[in-house]
Every structure is written in C-alpha cells, then in structure tokens.
Amino acid sequence: MQTAIETESSDTGVLSGWTTRRWLRTGVATTLAVLAVLGSLGGWAMWRTSQITSELVDRRSPALIEAMRLEQAMVNQETGIRGYGLSGRADFLQPYAQGVTDEKAALRLLRPLVEDDRAAADLAEVERLAGTWQRRVARPISAAPAGEAVKLATERAAEGKSDFDALRRSMARQQDRLQEERAAAARALSRAETLRNWMFAVIALVIVLVAVLVFEGLRRGVTAPLTRLGSAAREVARGRFDRSLVGTGPADLRQLALDTEAMRQRLVEELKFSEQARTLLDEQAEDLKRSNTELEQFAYVASHDLQEPLRKVSSFTQLLQRRYGGQLDAKADQYIAFAVDGANRMQTLINDLLAFSRVGRVHNDHQTVDLESVMTKVLDDLSVTIEETDAEIAHDPLPTVVGDATQLGMLWQNLLSNAIKFRSPDRPPRVQVSAVCHDDVWTFAVTDNGIGIAPEFHEKVFVLFQRLHTKDAYPGTGIGLAMCNKVVEFHGGTIGIDAGHTTGTRVVFTLPATASSSAAPQRGAQP
C-alpha cells in the first residue's frame, strides 16, 4: 500500500531545512542580543542619571549652601566690627568671633566643591576681598581697645564700607553662578530621568514584543503542528487507519510526521496480516473444536465400546487359563498367560489414557481446596500399600489453594505411589512432603529415599508413556508423572526434578497461593 505524505511549509530554500532546535537557538540568540543591547542602554541611562544626581546632590547644592553660609559668616563679622567700632562694647566682638569660625568651616567645605575654573576663580576673588577687608578693617578694630576702636572705626568707615560692598558683590556673583550651575544640573537630571524612563518603557515594550513573537513563533512552528499531528494520530488510534498524517513546521517535526506515517502504514500492514491470521486462527479453532468433539466421541467409544470386548477377551482368556491350565503343554500355558497379561495391560492402559484425557476437561471445578483433607484421603487410599511396604510418610502442614479437588488428589496419589513403588530394595521407603510459601506461590517438594532418577532422565520422565524400567521390574504404564505434569500446569504451576538432591528423588512443584493461605501460620510436621 502506497500513501502520499503531504508537507505544508511556508519556508523555502535553506530555511525549510531548519529544525526546531536551530530555530530555537537562532531565536534565543537574537533575543539575547536584543536584550543585551537594551540592557546596555538601560544601564547607561541609569548610570547617567546616577552621575547627574550625584553631581547635583554631592556638589552643586552643597556648594551653594556653603557659599550662603560663607556670606552669613562675613555679614556676622561686619555686624560685630561695626557695633564694636560704634559703641566700644566688647560683647559686639562675639558675633565677629563666631563669624570667623563659621567662615573657616564654610571655606573648608566649599573649596573641594568648586573644582572648575569659573567657580574656583569666584571663590578666590571672595577670599581675596574678604582678606583685604579683614586686614584693613576687621582685625585692627577688633584688636584695638574700646576708646581707640571707636576712633579707628570712624577713620576707616568709608574704606571699610567700600571694601565690604565689593565683598558683598563678589559673594552675590559667586552665589548667582553656583545657582545657575545647580539649575543646569537639575535640568540635566530631569532630561536624564526622562531619557531613562523612555528607555525603560522602550525596553518593556520590546520585551513584550519579543514575548509575543516567541509565543506566536512557538504556536505556529511547534504547538500548532504538534496539535495537528496529535489530532491525526488520535483519529488513527480511534480506528481511522486510512487517515494520512500530514507534517508541517520545522524539518524535525516534518520528519516526525514522516516516521509516524511510516509507522501507521506498517500498522495497517500488520493489521491486515493480523486479520488474515485471525481468520486462519478462527478456522483452526473451529477445526480444533471439531477435533475435540471427535476426541470426546473417541473417549466415549474407548470407555464403552472398546472396554466391553476387551473385558470379554480378558474374561474368556482368564477362564481358559483356569479350566485348561496344566492340561495342555507348557507353550500353551505360556501363550494363555501372555494373552491374559496383554488384555489386562490393555485395559489398564485404556483406563489411564481416559484419566489423562479428562484432566482439565471433565474435572474442571475450581474452588477452595484444603490440601490437608486431600492428603488424608490419599493416605487412606494408599494405606494397604503403605502397610505392606512399611513406608513412612510425613508432611508439613498443607495450605488451602484454589483448584480442582479430584485432580489435586490424583496429583498427590501419583507422586506418593511413585515414591513408594520406586523404593530401594535395602531400606523401607521414607517420604517427606514439604510446603513453603514465597511471593504468593506455594512450593511443594516430595522427597523419597528410593532408587532415584538419573540426571539425563529428569525431563523425559514427564513425557507420556516414558518408562525407565521394564514392566517386570516395576509395574505401570509410564503415565503417572505425565499426569502430574498436566495437573500442575492446568493449575498454573510448574513441576520438575530437583537436580541437587542425590539420595533418592525429590519432585518439586508450585501452585498459586490464595491471600489467606499465604498468611497462614506454619504448624509442625504431621505423619
């Protein structure tokens, strides 16, 4: 069967051969590159904003504040000197002294903050004019006694006013310049913050766009083709085996569709073969059913029609043996004995065959079976043989299993009778039956001290009619262990000869355990 596989893909040329992994690698690399560029721009915007903020907060604003403090300190000095020069009172020197201290503190903080040329020049001019005023007016007046201080202040009033006015104008220019620089820094900070905000807005927009593109790419390139392929596969699973599987998307998904389609075609072929095989099997089952019916008819004939003439032959040969035994020659007596023995063995063989054929067919009543009760009945049936051979049979406490009581009785009877039959001539038979439960399986072992079985015959003894001894040495038809094998297999177990046991024979077989029997307590061995 030939099915065309359609492939639908918008990619042509080189891109049509790209796999999902390659698309993902390319997409992830591109995304990472875009995010790296955007992250770098965002980092630069943050750094720029931080730098301008630091400039404004750490330099421009403190410089303006310290310049105003310097002006206040100089004003306090001028007020104190002027008051002392007019009144001669020493308490007016207190504002002057405090102003000198504040001036030094303001200059100490202001000098590092004015590093550019214009601000440094303004500060130098302020310091020069302040030094001139202090040298010409403030220090001489503050150092003079009260009477002389008034006279000296009067003499230098005009000069002092001129010098201090020049100082005031210089400090005003300095503050104006610092105010302009602070305002410029604030404007630069505002622009940097605006740029930063726009930058992060763009980054967020790009991230959202990338997420949308990634989602849409995965939907179109991966999830949608997989969904279509899965839907087609489910239709095939529901019985539409003629539904072709269409591959779309990247190259590996299309290849997956090709492989799945090839699997579908193989399944269709196997299904056709299975249909043919099932048809043949149905025919064979019908033939087998017919054959079983014929076998049942044969069993009926064997158990009724063949048994009757066989009994007649056996009866008349035995009657002939009793009436004419010893009256004919030795050869005639021997021939009559052969006929009687053959008829008896034929009758035994037919009965054994009938019993073997009934296993799993006639007796098939699975129920709870107490093996203790079955063992008691079997020992009672074998009591005469046990007494005649002086046999001892001991067994562990036997569990309750699910099976057919009649077949399990046949199993124990065959195993125990074999153990007694094939006994050693120099010692009485001793038989031990053990039962152990492990992993919900009962393992039974029938161990005797008889003649044993050679290793090469461990498998052969379970074959129908396989005898290891002549009928003169040990009677029987060679069907006992074959019967045991069939019973155990019918109950879901296995049977075999323990190759590790050397003295006598140990037959080991298993039976499934029930929930109650696997948890039953162990009791002492019973004879």
Task: Give a short synopsis of this structure.
With about 525 residues, this protein is α/β, with parallel strands linked by helices. About 65% of the residues lie in helices and about 10% in strands.
Descriptive report:
With 527 residues, the protein is of the alpha/beta class. It folds into three domains: 17-199, Four Helix Bundle (Hemerythrin (Met), subunit A) (Up-down Bundle), CATH 1.20.120; 306-358; 364-518, Histidine kinase-like ATPase, C-terminal domain (Heat Shock Protein 90, 2-Layer Sandwich), CATH 3.30.565. The protein is 67% helix and 8% strand. It contains 13 helices and nine strands. Helix 3 packs across helix 4, helix 3 packs antiparallel against helix 5 and helix 11 packs antiparallel against helix 12 (480-490). It is rod-shaped and about 195 Å long. Residues 1-12 and 521-527 have low confidence and may be disordered.
Q: What attributes characterize this protein structure?
A:
Heat Shock Protein 90; single chain; 527 residues; Four Helix Bundle (Hemerythrin (Met), subunit A); disordered C terminus; alpha/beta; 13 helices; disordered N terminus; 3 domains
Radius of gyration: 60 Å
Report the structural category. Answer: alpha/beta
- Give the oligomeric state of the chains in this entry, treating copies of one chain as homo and distinct chains as hetero: single chain
Annotation, overall tally of beta strands: 9
The tally of structural domains comes to 3
Termini gap:
71 Å
Mean pLDDT comes to 78
Please identify, by name, the CATH architecture of the largest domain.
Answer: Up-down Bundle
Number of helices: 13
Shape: rod-shaped
**Proportion of helical residues:** 55-70%
How large a portion of the residues is in β-strands, by DSSP E? 5-15%
Strand order of the largest sheet: 4-6-7-9-8
SSE topology string: EHHHHHEHHHEHHEEHEEHEEH
Which CATH class of the largest domain applies here? Answer: Mainly Alpha
Could you tell me the CATH topology label of the largest domain: Four Helix Bundle (Hemerythrin (Met), subunit A)
The description of the largest β-sheet is: 5 strands, mixed
